[in-house]
Amino acid sequence: MQFEFNIEGGDFTNAGTASSQVKKILKQLNVLPTDIKRIVVSLYEAEVNVVAHAYRGNILVEISPEKVVLILTDEGPGIPDISQAMQSGYSTASPHVREMGFGAGMGLPNIQKNADDLKIESEVGKGTRLEIIINLYKP
Amino acid sequence: MEQKFFHHALKVLENICIGCTHCMTVCPTEAIRVKNGTAHIIDNRCVDCGKCFRHCPVKAIIIDHDDFNRIFKFKHRIALVPSVIIGQFPEEITTRQIYSQLYEIGFNKVVEVEQGVEILHEAMSKYMIENPDNKPHISAFCPAIVRLIQVKFPTLVDNLIRVKPPLDITAGYLRKMLIEKGEATEDIGIFYVTPCAAKIAAIKSPVGEETSSITGVINMDLIFNKVYRSIKTGKKDHCVVPDSQPLKSRGVLWSLTHGEADEFEGRCLAIDEIHNVIEFLEKLENDEIQGVDFLELRACDQSCAGGVLASGNRFLTVERLRKRANSSEEQQNDTIPPRSESINDYHDKLLNDSSISIITPRSMLKLDEDMGEAMRKMDNVNQLMKCFPRIDCGACGTPNCQALATDIVQGNGKIEQCFYIQHLMRDRDVLDARETSRINGEIWGPDKIDTDRCFNTYLKNDD
Question: What is the interface pTM, i.e. ipTM, of the complex?
Answer without folding.
Answer: 0.82
